[in-house]
Amino acid sequence: MYTVIEVKDKRQEKEFLRLPVRLYKGNPNWIRPLDNDLRKVFDPQKNPSFKHGECTRWLLIDDRGACVGRVAAFINGKTCRLEEHAVGQMGFFECIDDREAAFRLFDTCREWLEARGMEVMEGPVNFGERMEWWGLLVDGFDRPPNYAMPYTHPYYVQFFEAYGFRDYFKQFTYRNKLVVESLSPVVIWKADRLLKNPDYSVFTYREIGAGKAVDSLLEIYNKAWNLEVHGVECITRDQVEALYKSLKSVIDEDLIYFVYFREAPIGFFLMFPEMNQVIRRLNGRVNFVGMLKFLYYKRRVDVALGQLFGVVPEFQGKGVEAALIKKFCETVVQRGSRYKYLEMNWVGDFNPQMMHLMDYLSASVVKTHITCRKLFREDIKFVRSVDKV
C-alpha cells in the first residue's frame, strides 16, 4: 500500500514541512513550527552536525499518491560509539493513524542505520542539540508545546511501544508561578547563605554585556557537560556567538544569569521568552506581515522558558542553583515584569538534583516526553540512562 521516497528536492521538502499541518488540523494545542527552524536542521551549511555525521529524510506515499508520513534517520559520528553498542538516531516522525504505515517508516530508519553499522535506534530525537525537537510526548497533550519542542499525536505512543521501543529516559517540563513566596524555605536559605559570602556574585546578561556572557557560557558549559558522561559535545566560541546572534531578536537581557566565584564563572541560567506564544500566530513563516506580528505579540509573552542550566561540578550542591533561581524571581517581581510563569523545558529523570530543585520551587510537571531506544538484537541488554549515571 505504501511507497517510501527519499527527500531530495524542494517539492519533497515542502511536503515534509506541510504534512503536519494536515495531520494536526483542528487541534487547538498544536503550533506550527517555523519552516526555517526545521530547514536548518537538514541544511549542511547551517547544522554543524553534518561535519561529523549524516542524515536522510523520507516521505511515505499511499496508493493514491498522497503523503501520509515522514521521518528522518541520522548518525552523530562523535557520540554514536560512546557506549558498548553503536547508537543511531531517528526523529521528525509524523504519520497517519495506521500501524502499517508507522512500521514502514520505522523499518526504513532501521535498515538505513543497520547498513551503517548501528545496533541501537534512539528516538524520536533531533539531529543536533538536545534542547530542540527531542522526545516523544506522552503526557501534556492538553497544552501547547514549548518553543522547538515536539507536540505529537497520542496514538504515536502505541506505535513506538508496539515496534519495540523502550523508555530510555524521561524529560519533564515543569511550571510554576513567578512569585518569591513560591520558593521553599530551603531554597531561600541556600541562596541567602551563598550570596552572603562576598566570594560569590550573580549578574544578568544586561549587567555584564555580550562579550563576558559569551566567555562565561563557554567556560561553564564545557566544564559542566562532557561527552563521556552526558553524551553532550563541548561547544566552541563560534557556536556560542552564533547562538547569541541567532537569538538576538528574542533575548531579554534580564532572563540570562551568571554566577561567579572570585570572578571565575561557575554557573548559568539561560531563559528566553516563550516564543511559541508568538509563533502560533505566524503560520510557519516570518515574512513582512509575520515580522510585524512578531514585534507586536513579543511584548505580550508572559512565560519565561528555561532552556539551559549549568553549574561546574565542584560547585554543584552548594546553593548555586538556588541563588540563580532566587535572584531571577526577585528581579522579575521587583521590576514588575510581564513574566508571570517559569517553565523549565528539559529536566531529565537522570538528573535527580534538578528534579529536587523543581520540588523546592513548588513547580509541577505539566508535560512529559520520552526518549526511546529500540535494540536491533536480542543479545543486547537494555539499560535505562538513569542506571548508567
Layout of helices and strands, plus pairs?
Blueprint (H helix, E strand, L loop, with lengths): L2 E4 L3 H14 L11 H5 L13 E9 L5 E10 L10 E9 L3 H16 L5 E4 L12 E4 L15 H9 L2 E12 L7 H11 L4 E5 H20 L2 H4 L6 H10 L9 E6 L2 E10 L2 H4 L8 H11 L4 E9 L8 H15 L6 E8 L3 H9 L3 E12 L14
Parallel strand pairs: 4-5, 11-12
Antiparallel strand pairs: 1-2, 2-3, 3-4, 5-13, 6-13, 7-12, 7-13, 8-9, 9-10, 10-11
Helix pairs in contact: 5-11, 6-8
List keywords for this structure.
389 residues, alpha+beta, Aminopeptidase, 2 domains, 12 helices
Count of the separate structural domains: 2
Q: Considering the protein shown, what is the CATH homologous superfamily of the largest domain?
A: Gcn5-related N-acetyltransferase (GNAT)
In the CATH hierarchy, the third-tier topology of the largest domain is known as: Aminopeptidase
Q: Note the overall shape.
A: globular
Residue share in β-strands: 25-35%
How many helices? The count is 12
Class from secondary-structure proportions: alpha+beta
Quickly describe the structure.
With 389 residues, this protein is α+β, with helices and mostly antiparallel strands. The protein contains 12 helices and 13 strands. The protein has 2 domains: 3-170 and 370-387, 3-Layer(aba) Sandwich (Aminopeptidase), CATH 3.40.630.30; 179-339, Aminopeptidase (3-Layer(aba) Sandwich), CATH 3.40.630.30.
Plain-language structure description:
This protein is an alpha+beta fold. The chain folds into two domains: 3-170 and 370-387, Aminopeptidase, CATH 3.40.630; 179-339, Aminopeptidase. It has twelve helices and 13 strands. The protein has helices spanning 10-23, 35-39, 99-114, 155-163, 185-195, 205-224, 227-230, 237-246, 276-279, 288-298, 320-334, 352-360; strands at residues 3-6, 53-61, 67-76, 87-95, 120-123, 136-139, 166-177, 200-204, 256-261, 264-273, 303-311, 341-348, 364-375. Strands 1, 2, 3, 4, 5, 6, 7, 8, 9, 10, 11, 12 and 13 form a 13-stranded mixed beta sheet that branches. Helix 6 crosses helix 8 (237-246). The chain is globular.
